[in-house]
Amino acid sequence: xxxxxxxxxxxxxxxxxxxxxxxxxxxxxxxxxxxxxxxxxxxxxxxxxxxxxxxxxxxxxxxxxxxxxxxxxxxxxxxxxxxxxxxxxxxxxxxxxxxxxxxxxxxxxxxxxxxxxxxxxxxxxxxxxxxxxxxxxxxxxxxxxxxxxxxxxxxxxxxxxxxxxxxxxxxxxxxxxxxxxxxxxxxxxxxxxxxxxxxxxxxxxxxxxxxxxxxxxxxxxxxxxxxxxxxxxxxxxxxxxxxxxxxxxxxxxxxxxxxxxxxxxxxxxxxxxxxxxxxxxxxxxxxxxxxxxxxxxxxxxxxxxxxxxxxxxxxxxxxxxxxxxxxxxxxxxxxxxxxxxxxxxxxxxxxxxxxxxxxxxxxxxxxxxxxxxxxxxxxxxxxxxxxxxxxxxxxxxxxxxxxxxxxxxxxxxxxxxxxxxxxxxxxxxxxxxxxxxxxxxxxxxxxxxxxxxxxxxxxxxxxxxxxxxxxxxxxxxxxxxxxxxxxxxxxxxxxxxxxxxxxxxxxxxxxxxxxxxxxxxxxxxxxxxxxxxxxxxxxxxxxxxxxxxxxxxxxxxxxxxxxxxxxxxxxxxxxxxxxxxxxxxxxxxxxxx
Length: 593
Hints:
Number of helices: 16
Distance between the termini: 66 Å
Largest sheet: 8 strands, mixed
Radius of gyration: 30 Å
Helix content: 25-40%
Structural class: alpha+beta
Strand order of the largest sheet: 6-9-10-26-25-24-19-12
Strand content: 15-25%
Shape: globular
């Protein structure tokens, strides 16, 4: 028999009754039932109930066991009484009578429990992450992640893609975040960078003549943490294809992602219709470029109904250039109580409130009437026109926000989601996807300069001709895939022509010399015959978070950082030794200096 185990803790069933076996694992919990000791023995695969009575030669040793000790036991498999069968366990039809027990590893008093799903402070959980990972839900999440990666690899190979690895130590590249820099020992004063993404390398792979590339790529970005983003490193399914247009990338990616969600969440509906929504329309209709389409509410511009109206706040606002009034329809929300609650929500978010109209049965004469402060101010004719435009009826409501869209769009999106939740309008157990397309190539910074609004390597729609006019009117072949309110994929058709690339960077304030300095390898390659190419990348951590139905990405990462980008288990970041600094010819400037 094997030194530690003949079976795992998930293998035994009634076919093994009467057999002598050996198991090994962790003591999940010990229960004393008056002269009979029960142990739930746990390993990676599952759980088996083992027991010993006072007649067992192992009874005295088992009395000494504590939670999370690692043990190996010898025993005989017995069938459970029919009334004691546990259908929740794969081994629920049997139990093992212990003849001998060996302690393989003792455990100190636990700083946090492993049994059960008790919610402990994050600091404790991350400091003792190896214990945290023993908990059933986290263990399942990590196995889900492993299986997702395997599925993606197989699916990409099946789609005709080839897997290649790209460098981890490389040069700095602008991807919208700060680099992690690595000092060079051999070249004092110079630094490598950890790649924010394999962007330039995967484009070079296309130039080198490899047609379809993918990689499960580690990416490193010095970013502020949030619930759906790691502050240091993450993994993405990185994809690039040659001789493709935007639609070709979509056609290649959709079956991979759709198959992933269908396989790992068969209990949910995975929508097969993936609409294309222009970036500007997404902001207008949903207040976000990553809309949650499970919520059917679509916002609309209703400015014309308030111009010159009796509601002076909106009427006067519309006299200013670039302002508008938007409505958030609220089907079934037609009660003063609900409207007041949403108005209070707006105030809690820092706004003065939201105007509203709701439609109820008329107090006299039957029929329907509009109610609320706005209805009184603008009159029945305008409220009826608004109702018809929004497609609302008796028992419905609408909320209104005004100003320059960039000032209220974000809140409008949150309010739309809140209204959908409050009124139970949003679908449940569903994944809905949408391609967000036609991103603006440039944006104006706070200091009035022109800069790239997204990936600087995307091809401008219209090519060189488009770059001759107003930069803010140029759209890029840039796209994101939104799923249930999260950005799941980002990508684009690349700018593979040096003259267009130079011009695109020139408009963002980068002279040709700077482009050559920062992206010399890629620009050089484009001068020797570059194919049209494009691709995308999917955040694996975020995909697993959606599949696991978790709200925080740290629940699907094996060893995550905390909110301050600290590894509490390994003690990173740490202070370097003086010998290391001398070897790298570096010195640390005190924080207060």
